[in-house]
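Title: [Solved] Argininosuccinate synthase 3D structure

Original question kept below for reference.
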Amino acid sequence: MENKVTKVVMAYSGGLDTSIIIPWLKENYNCEVIACCADVGQGDEVKQVHDKAIASGASKVYIMDLKDEFVADYVFPVIRAGAIYEHKYLLGTSCARPLIGKALVEVAKKEGADYICHGCTGKGNDQVRFELAIKALSPSTKIIAPWRIWDIKSREDAVDYADAHGIEVPVTKKRPYSMDRNVLHLSHEGADLEDPANEPMADLCLICTRPEDAPDEAEYVTIDFDKGTPVAINGEKLAPLALLEKANELAAKHGVGIQDLVENRLVGMKSRGVYETPGGTLLHEAHLALESLTLDRQTIFFKNTVSNQYAQLVYDGLWFTPLKEALDAFVDASQKTVCGQVRMKLYKGSCHSAGMTSPYSLYNEEFATFGEDEVYNQADAEGFINLFGLPVKVNALMKEKAGLNTEEK
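Solution (posted by the thread starter after getting help):
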């Protein structure tokens, strides 16, 4: 380091990595460490964060309740954008990291700290997400990433370090997974999941009921949307956080939202993880169904492209970027008519539309009916097909004239 490290803001979760980093920073830099825990819905583990951080050597601990902001300003925009990474991953961890990075910058500025430290490994995506958020919001702040520079090479080494320093850690032989939890999802990685040939253990999921153990009777749930944003469940208007929590409860009961996937990490390798995203899955599917009713064909086609690009940006940690801002503007414009109610059927892991209504519905039964109607002249189709198919016909005529086989490619 060119400058002496005097004060460091540490992204603290209370887990194995961040617990041992506090004493490591003090040993190696003789600096003050301020722990910052962003509560985005981790659950009971937040309750022990303050005392654990102090016991590990932190001089001060910030516990910031960001759940409301997380759902309203990060989760719901991702749902409105229809952003799903590689067809399965609903970006539960990815969309939380920029908010946590923002919180770290705020604490660092308040405390006058020139350094921010995180516990991400050099193999993961989160190091990129945190650091790009910090660079975007505070470009002069320096970053310390112990996993890229210290002598600890494995989780086993980390456990040994914790034992040597009298630090309690939550990792046990019984449940050796690396997990990330927030109000949107719970992820599981490592241990037996590192072999993609292994089926996940029967007791892996901690939020969702196993589909085979879910109720034998389907449940119907209605979701109301206003400009693409979910605003009510079963007729009850709820604030964003309460709505997502209710969606989690309903969907998890029926085993909805479990995804087992091998994904392409930004740093170049494939990784296998199991994600539990019950409420997010319910809301995504309902939103997609309503868009099918309220968006025209060209907008839907283009929004599919935007959704993929949006997912890629969020996954890659590029939340605070000009392109992300521009895509948000398109999403906002596309969602003006995405208003209405969707009835969803939940049954043993499945979640799909069972009917929808909207004041902006583009579905017109008079035109779509297979019965007799007075608004659609079927004879018009002949002229349309002749004009639409003219390039195909001209190409075939050219091949005939040139003596080419019209079936050749």
